[in-house]
Amino acid sequence: MSDHLSAAQRDELEAALREQRARLLERGRLAVEDANVEPLDLQEQAAGEVAKRDQLLVSGMDRARLAEVEAALGRVADGTYGECEETGEPIPFARLRAEPTTRYTVEALEILESEQARAKNVARDRGDAGY
Fold this sequence. Notes:
The chain is mainly alpha-helical. The chain contains four helices and no strands.
């Protein structure tokens, strides 16, 4: 793990990641339980369909977030947590505290986003439909 973090900072960040993972898994468990409730009438059935649609949207976001949390915990385990994946530079503790799953320094993220925007513009200018 990156040497720029103290043991207390690493522990705090790992605990935050584990708490997020537990919360996301619990939300997923509750969603499955709610989906198994049988509606009593057409109004409840319609409300249930809307709730299922909304739950699919949320569960998709939750799955993506859970994947990010699991990846961050993997970096904790392999000793690379807190290092920018693009530059290898240390990610400041304040940034990790604000977003424990972050993989990049602010500077590296800005460069990546700029490159992605440029690639989109080039694709759009060429008329590529897949941008």
